[in-house]
Amino acid sequence: MADFDTVLKFWGPVEADYTAHGGLVLTRLFTEHPDTLKLFPKFAGIAHSDLAVNAAVSAHGATVLKKLGELLRAKGDHAAILKPMANSHANKHKIPINNFKLIAEVIGKVMGEKVGLDAAGQEALRNVMAVVIADMEANYKELGFTG
User: Fold this and answer.
1) Alpha-carbon distance 147 to 89, whole Å?
2) Which tens digits make up the pLDDT trace of 4-31?
């Protein structure tokens, strides 16, 4: 619970501009982990140099961060939020669980750079994301998705 509160102390600036921060997160994800771009067919035709200014990339990044905000505010009581997300990401989008670990790492970096998430905040975010990802993986197993 304390880890959720620690991260939430830094969440205000992210929430104030989900679109800008979301664009930064996805652009960084695609730059540091180019294979992840293949998981987003709707971005396939976008030149790498245009990712950072693409409205669709920023909009999807905003969606990711809004969902993370919901998960943070749930403070671990997130089954009702996570179950439909796991269902869509396993059955429709086919997103391997490792990709959640990659984006969590990128979110931590972006928050460190843009909103001042300090070392304790970084550790708290890692702890929060470990719980969320473990619960997501449990949902994946229930669905028979091994990605």
Assistant:
1) 10
2) 999 999 999 999 999 999 999 999 999 9
